[in-house]
Amino acid sequence: MKKVGILSNNKNFLKDFYEKISDLDAVEYSSIDKINIYEIIILLVDIEIFNSYDNIQFYLSKIRKKLLKIPVLLIVFEGSEKQIKPEWFFTDFILYPFRSTELKERINIAIRRANIANDENILIAGNIMINTREYSVFLNDEKIECTFKEFELLRYLVENKGIVISRKELLNKIWGVDYIGGTRTVDVHIRRLRSKLGEEFSTIIETVRNVGYRCKQD
Fold first, then answer.
1. Which secondary-structure segment (H or E) carries 212?
2. What is the third-level CATH fold of 3-117?
3. pLDDT (tens digit, 9 = 90+) per residue, 68-98?
4. What is the C-alpha separation between 148 and 142, in angstroms, rounded?
5. C-alpha 83: how far from its chain's center?
6. CB distance 151 to 135 below 8 Å
7. CB 37 within 8 A of CB 74
8. What is the full DSSP assignment across 116-176?
9. What are phi and psi of 199, to 5 degrees?
10. Hey, CA dihedral for 37, 38, 40, 42, is it positive or negative?
11. Do 213 and 170 contact (CB within 8 A), yes or no?
12. Cβ-based neighbours of 69, under 8 Å, separated by 6 or more
């Protein structure tokens, strides 16, 4: 069975880490070269092992190339989180000192999301997950009730990330070429999706004035 990997050389840190995940199998590494991708399901990286924040992106890039799709969870000392850059190659981060059961929960969430991302029936955009097999939509792991047309509209936009899709094309694709309603129907359904998904909708779906809509986030 694969284990939780931890990259760190801080003995006090490792002691606390093992206490917090006492019922999970773990393996520690003291350097990137020693990481064995075949024995871990996730890698936690003690960011202090890099000594300087100037070189972190380089080392995380090296780790990502080695681990491929295995999730990487950064462990950042409290107070240093503002130094994290979104362009770094990591899946998520957690603050140290750890809070109660948060460490195990974040590990499990990262593993679950990685498994989901490898499922061909799953579409991910920001914190929105679309299950095309079950016709379901989740926001931050909470199921959102959508009508069939709302689901199809959201799915079509996410399946065509980065492409501006006109209202007319959306109308034809979702409602059919024989539909007698106007393109306003698309805007009505977009508003309904926006009300259900809240601020997250605006982070992934962009309104292109006088044209249509575009999914802008992976």
1. strand 212-215
2. Rossmann fold (3.40.50)
3. 888 999 999 888 888 888 889 898 899 999 8
4. 18
5. 20
6. yes
7. no
8. HHT-TTEEEETTEEEETTTTEEEETTEEE---HHHHHHHHHHHHTTT--EEHHHHHHHHH-
9. -60, -30
10. positive
11. yes
12. 114, 117, 118
State the architecture of 122-215 in CATH terms: Orthogonal Bundle (1.10)
Q: Closest by alpha carbon to 200, among 112, 141, 120, 122?
A: 141
Token readout for 196 is 């259900």
Lowest-pLDDT range, 24-28, 38-42, 178-182?
178-182
Closest CA to 47 of 109, 95, 11: 95
DSSP assignment letter at 181 = S
| For the chain, domain boundaries | 3-117, 122-215
Which tens digit of pLDDT belongs to each residue from 99-125?
A: 878 898 888 888 877 776 667 788 888
